[in-house]
C-alpha cells in the first residue's frame, strides 16, 4: 500500500516507482544464504492446466497440511493475479541434500480420494515459489486407451504421485534454478473408490553451476525469443508494414486527386465537368462541421479513448524498461490499477474540453458519462465473474478487503482527478475552429448503396487493422490465457504503432469516400469505423477459444469471454478515438483548401 500511495503523486513518477519494484518480495531481499539457512518456500495455487483462471488454494486439495497454515502477506497485484501464497510443507534448507524423507503419512478418505481422482483426470497442476523462482508440477497421471467422453474417464487407471524430487542449482551463496521431478514408480493407485494409505515423501539434491545470479531468469524470457518464434514475429511485422505501405500509397493517391480537383476548379474546362461528380465533398462544406447527435456521449467516448490510449502507452513504456519480466508477480495488474487511476484526469479534460468546443452545456452530465462509460460495464462484468469465482471457491475471487481498496482508489483518486480534469477542460476556453461555417438547415443526404452503410464500412475499416495484428494476437492470447511466456514487448510495441497507423489511414480513406458521396454525418461513422477492430478481436476470441485452446467449464468460459469483452470494448473506444482524430485532421485540411461561401 505504501508503494501505491507514493505512485499517486504524478504520472511522471510512475516510471520511477515501477522501475524500483524488485521481483523479490521475500524474507531474504539479497538472495544470499549460508549453508543450512532456511530459504523462503511458498506454495501458491493449483488448478486445471488448461483453465488458467480456475485456480484454487494449494491446501484445498488434501495434501499434508500443517496445523496452522502460515499465509504470506501479498500486495494488490498478487491478489488480483489470483496468487494466494502459503508456506510450503517442504523444508529445503540451503545446500542440505536429503534422501527420500517423509512429510506425513495419512489415510485418504473416500472423499479425499475422489478429490485427487478428479484433480488427476482434469490435469491439475500446482505452482510454488522457491526463493522467488517458479516451480510447477502435476499431481498424477492416468492411463486409458481412448477418451471419447467423460464416461470413459471412469474406466481410466488413476495414479497419484506421492514422491517429489527437488534438484536445485546454486552458484556460491545464491540459488540459480530449481526443478521438480516425480518418481513414476512412487505412485498410489486411486482407481478404486476406497480409503488409501499414503506416505508423502520428498528428496533434495543440490548441484553447483556457473550461471551467474543476474541471468537466472533468462531462460523464461528466452522461450519467446527462439529463432522459429522470432521468424513468425518478424513475418507478422513485415506483413503489417506492407499493409501500411499500400495504405500510404492509396492515401497519397486520394490526396493528390483532391488537390487535382482543387486546381481544376480554378481552370474550368471539359475535364473539370467530367470530374465534377467526383468532387462532391466540396458541396457539403456547410454541413460537414455540423456537430454530431448525442454530443455528451460522443465527447465522453473520446475522453475515455484518450485515457485508455495514454494507459497503453505507459504500460508499453514500463514493459520496454524491463518492469514486466517473467513472474514479476502482480506487477502488470498493479500498473494497470495505478495508471488507470492517475490518468482519469486525462479522460475528464479531453471529454469536457471537446464537449464545450461543440457547444455542450451540461457539465455534470459529461463527467458522469465519462466516469461510467467504461468503468460501468467493467464493474458489472467484474461483479458477475467475481460471484462465479466465489461460487467455485477459486482464488480468482477477490477478498472483501481488496475490493474495498480498489473502491477507495476509485473514490479518492480516480473520481477527484476526473473532476479536476473536467474543470480544467471546461475552463480551457478553446474553440472548435471549423474552416467553414455551418448552414442553418442540414443538407439532405442522397440515397447510398449498401456498401456505403455504417455496418459495411465498419467491416471494411476493422478488417485491415486486424489483419496487421492477428499473428501477434495468438502469442499474446497464449500468454494471457495459457502458460506461454511473452517477453518480446518491443515487437508488440511496433505492431501497436502499425495498428494505429493503419487505423488512421483506413478511417481517412473511408471518410473521404463518405464525404465524396455527399454524406456529411461522418463524426460517429469515423469513430465506429475506427473502433470496429475491437469487434474483430472479439471474433478472434471465439476462434481462439474453440480452435487454439483447450479451455472448458463455465467458470473459465465466463472469465475468458467476460474479461475479453471488456478489453475489446476498451480497444473499441481507444481506436475509435484514434480514427476520429485522424479523420478530423484530414477533414479540416481539405476544407481549408477551398473557399467557403
TrEMBL record:
Keyword terms of this UniProt record: Endosome, Golgi apparatus, Membrane, Signal, Transmembrane, Transmembrane helix
One of the GO BP terms on file: protein localization to membrane
Source species, domain of life: Eukaryota
Record InterPro entries: EMP70
Gene Ontology cellular component list: endosome membrane; Golgi membrane
Protein family (similarity comment): Belongs to the nonaspanin (TM9SF) (TC 9.A.2) family.
The protein's name in its UniProt record: Transmembrane 9 superfamily member
Organism annotation: Pisum sativum
Amino acid at each position: 500500500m505504501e508503494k501505491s500511495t507514493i505512485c499517486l503523486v504524478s504520472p511522471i513518477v510512475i516510471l520511477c516507482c515501477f522501475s524500483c519494484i524488485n521481483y523479490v518480495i521475500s524474507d531474504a531481499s539479497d538472495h544470499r544464504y549460508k549453508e543450512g539457512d532456511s530459504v523462503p518456500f511458498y506454495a501458491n495455487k493449483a488448478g486445471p492446466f488448461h483453465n488458467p483462471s480456475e485456480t484454487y488454494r494449494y491446501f484445498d486439495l488434501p495434501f499434508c497440511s500443517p496445523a496452522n497454515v502460515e499465509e504470506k502477506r501479498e500486495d494488490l497485484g498478487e491478489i488480483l493475479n489470483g496468487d494466494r501464497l502459503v508456506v510450503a510443507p517442504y523444508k529445503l534448507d540451503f545446500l542440505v541434500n536429503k534422501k527420500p524423507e517423509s512429510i506425513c503419512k495419512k489415510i485418504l478418505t473416500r472423499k479425499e480420494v475422489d478429490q485427487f481422482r478428479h484433480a488427476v483426470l482434469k490435469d491439475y497442476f500446482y505452482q510454488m515459489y522457491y526463493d522467488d523462482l517458479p516451480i510447477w508440477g502435476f499431481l498424477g497421471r492416468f492411463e486409458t486407451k481412448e477418451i471419447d467422453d467423460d464416461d470413459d474417464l471412469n474406466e481410466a487407471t488413476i495414479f497419484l504421485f506421492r514422491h517429489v524430487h527437488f534438484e536445485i542449482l546454486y552458484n556460491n551463496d545464491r540459488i540459480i534454478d530449481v526443478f521438480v521431478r516425480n518418481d513414476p514408480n512412487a505412485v498410489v493407485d486411486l482407481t478404486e473408490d476406497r480409503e488409501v494409505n499414503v506416505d508423502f515423501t520428498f528428496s533434495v539434491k543440490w548441484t553447483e553451476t556457473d550461471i551467474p545470479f543476474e541471468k537466472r531468469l533468462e531462460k523464461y524470457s528466452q522461450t519467446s525469443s527462439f529463432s522459429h518464434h522470432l521468424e513468425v514475429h518478424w513475418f507478422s511485422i513485415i506483413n503489417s508494414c506492407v499493409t501500411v505501405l499500400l495504405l500510404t500509397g492509396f492515401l497519397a493517391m486520394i490526396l493528390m486527386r483532391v488537390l487535382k480537383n482543387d486546381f481544376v476548379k480554378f481552370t474550368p474546362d471539359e475535364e473539370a465537368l467530367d470530374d465534377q461528380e467526383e468532387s462532391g465533398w466540396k458541396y457539403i462544406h456547410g454541413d460537414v462541421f455540423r456537430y454530431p447527435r448525442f454530443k455528451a456521449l460522443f465527447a465522453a467516448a473520446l475522453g475515455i479513448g484518450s485515457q485508455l490510449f495514454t494507459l497503453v502507452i505507459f504500460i508499453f513504456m514500463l514493459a520496454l524498461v524491463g518492469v514486466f519480466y517473467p513472474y514479476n508477480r502482480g506487477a502488470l495488474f498493479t500498473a494497470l490499477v495505478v495508471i488507470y487511476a492517475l490518468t482519469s484526469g486525462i479522460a475528464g479534460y479531453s471529454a469536457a474540453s471537446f464537449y464545450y468546443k461543440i457547444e455542450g452545456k451540461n457539465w455534470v452530465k459529461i463527467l458522469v458519462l465519462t466516469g461510467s462509460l467504461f468503468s460501468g460495464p467493467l464493474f458489472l462484468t467484474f461483479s458477475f465473474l467475481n460471484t462465479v469465482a466465489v461460487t467455485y471457491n477459486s482464488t480468482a475471487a477477490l477478498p472483501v478487503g481488496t475490493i474495498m481498496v480498489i473502491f477507495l482508489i476509485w473514490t479518492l483518486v480516480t473520481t477527484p482527478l476526473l473532476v479536476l480534469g473536467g474543470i480544467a477542460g471546461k475552463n480551457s476556453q478553446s474553440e472548435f475552429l471549423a474552416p467553414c461555417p455551418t448552414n442553418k438547415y442540414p443538407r439532405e443526404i442522397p440515397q447510398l448503396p449498401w456498401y456505403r452503410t455504417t455496418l459495411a464500412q465498419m467491416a471494411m475499416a476493422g478488417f485491415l487493422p486486424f489483419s496487421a495484428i492477428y499473428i501477434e494476437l495468438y502469442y499474446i492470447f497464449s500468454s494471457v490465457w495459457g502458460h506461454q511466456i511473452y517477453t518480446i514487448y518491443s515487437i508488440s510495441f511496433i505492431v501497436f504503432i502499425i495498428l494505429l497507423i493503419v487505423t488512421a489511414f483506413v478511417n481517412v480513406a473511408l471518410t473521404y469516400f463518405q464525404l465524396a458521396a455527399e454524406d456529411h454525418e461522418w463524426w460517429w461513422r469515423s469513430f465506429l469505423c475506427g473502433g470496429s477492430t475491437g469487434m474483430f478481436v472479439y471474433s478472434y476470441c471465439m476462434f481462439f477459444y474453440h480452435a487454439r485452446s483447450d479451455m472448458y467449464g463455465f467458470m473459465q468460459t465466463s472469465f475468458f469471454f467476460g474479461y475479453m469483452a471488456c478489453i475489446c470494448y476498451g480497444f473499441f473506444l481507444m481506436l475509435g478515438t484514434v480514427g476520429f482524430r485522424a479523420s478530423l485532421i484530414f477533414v479540416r485540411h481539405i476544407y481549408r483548401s477551398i473557399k467557403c461561401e
